[in-house]
Design goal:
The protein is of the alpha+beta class. It contains 8 helices and 17 strands. Strands 8, 9, 12, 13, 14, 15, 16 and 17 form an 8-stranded antiparallel β-sheet that branches.
C-alpha cells in the first residue's frame, strides 16, 4: 500500500498563518504569497473521508497547474510556481465568498433535484421534459456560497449575491464572463482528449483591484467528465454515462447509505477501495493531460515537500 499524505504542519520562513481545508493546506507567507499543499485527503458531501488516496494530491496539483497555464490569456490567475509535485505557490488574494459552478449537462445534484420536481436552480429556470445527462442549450451558472469546513455549500442566485453585497455588480459580471470563457476553453481541451467537460467550479479572488482565478481548475475534484465516445448511444438508451470524476466516490458512498447526513457513518474504506479510487484518478489524469502519470516517491513526502518549498522561498 502506497503512503498517502493526509496532514501537514510546516513552519516556513515568513509564515503568517495556515489554513487546513478539506483537501488543501494553505500557508500564508508574508501576506504576499500562498503555498498550497495538495494533500491526499478526499472529501465527499462536504465530509473529509477517513483515508487518503495515494497520488491524488500530486495528480490534482499537476492537472490544475497545466490548466492554469493554458488559460492565462482568458484571465489572470494566482499561480507563480510549482516547487513540488504536490505544491503550488501563488499570489495571496482575498477570495470571494461564492463559488462559480457552471453546468453544461443536467446531472449530479442538479439532476437529483430536477427529478424531484425542482425546475429552478440558483435562479436559473430549467425547462420541463429534460432527461438525465442531457446537454443544456447553453451552459448555466449555478453559484454556491463558500462554506466553512464542516459546513455545506448553499445554492445562491445571482440576485441574492448582489442583494447581500457578497460581490459588486461590476465584479460579478466579470466573474460570469470569466466563468463562461474558462468553461469553453476546458470543453475544447477535453474534446481533444475524447472527453466531455460536464460541469465544474471556479473560485476567484482579488488583490490590488485585480481579479484572479484561484485554487484549482478542471481537476476531477472540481469537475465532472464524460467519455465522448458512446455518449449519444448511452443517452439515447437512458444508460449511465461512462465518466471520470469524483462522482463514482459519491455513488459508492450513497450505495452504502452515506450522504453526509447527521447520524450516518462513512462505510469502511478497504485497501481495495482506496486503490480503485487512486487508479480512477490516474485514469483521468492521463486522459485529460494526454501524458503518462509518473508516480512521485511516497516514502518521505513531508520532508521532500519541505525541502522543495524552502528552496523556492529562499530563491525568491
Amino acid at each position: 500500500m502506497e503512503k498517502a499524505l493526509t496532514k501537514t504542519d510546516y513552519n516556513f520562513p515568513g509564515q503568517v498563518s495556515v489554513y487546513h481545508g478539506k483537501v488543501r493546506d494553505v500557508y500564508n507567507i508574508n501576506n504576499e504569497q500562498l503555498v498550497m499543499v495538495a494533500t491526499d485527503r478526499i472529501s465527499a458531501f462536504d465530509v473529509v473521508l477517513p483515508k487518503g488516496i495515494p497520488y491524488k494530491g500530486q495528480m490534482l496539483n499537476q492537472i490544475a497547474a497545466k490548466f492554469l497555464d493554458a488559460t492565462t490569456d482568458i484571465c489572470p490567475n494566482w499561480k507563480l510556481a510549482t516547487p513540488d509535485p504536490m505544491v503550488t505557490a501563488g499570489v495571496q488574494c482575498e477570495g470571494y465568498p461564492v463559488e462559480m459552478i457552471v453546468r453544461g449537462y443536467l446531472c449530479g445534484s442538479a439532476w437529483r433535484a430536477y427529478k424531484n420536481g425542482v425546475r429552478e436552480i440558483c435562479g436559473v429556470k430549467i425547462p420541463d421534459g429534460m432527461r438525465e445527462n442531457e446537454r443544456f442549450k447553453e451552459p448555466i451558472i449555478t453559484p454556491t456560497t463558500k462554506a466553512e469546513i464542516g459546513e455545506h455549500d448553499q445554492d445562491i442566485s445571482r440576485e441574492d449575491i448582489l442583494a447581500k453585497g457578497l460581490v459588486s455588480e461590476e465584479e460579478y459580471a466579470l466573474l460570469e464572463k470569466y466563468t463562461i470563457a474558462l468553461f469553453k476553453r476546458g470543453t475544447e481541451i477535453a474534446a481533444e482528449r475524447g472527453l466531455i467537460l460536464v460541469d465544474t467550479k471556479y473560485e476567484f479572488g482579488h488583490r490590488d483591484g485585480k481579479i484572479y482565478l484561484i485554487d484549482e481548475i478542471h481537476t476531477p475534484d472540481s469537475s465532472r467528465y464524460f467519455y465522448k465516445e458512446g455518449y449519444e448511444e448511452r443517452f439515447a438508451k437512458s444508460e449511465p454515462q461512462k465518466q471520470l470524476s469524483k462522482e463514482f466516490v459519491r455513488e459508492w458512498l450513497m450505495d452504502n447509505g452515506f450522504q453526509g447526513q447527521a447520524g450516518q457513518v462513512v462505510p469502511e474504506m478497504t485497501n481495495e477501495i482506496v486503490d480503485s479510487i487512486s487508479n480512477r484518478y490516474i485514469e483521468l489524469y492521463e486522459h485529460i493531460t494526454g501524458e503518462t502519470f509518473v508516480k512521485g516517491a511516497t516514502d518521505h513526502l513531508l520532508s521532500r515537500i519541505e525541502t522543495n518549498v524552502l528552496s523556492y522561498l529562499k530563491a525568491k
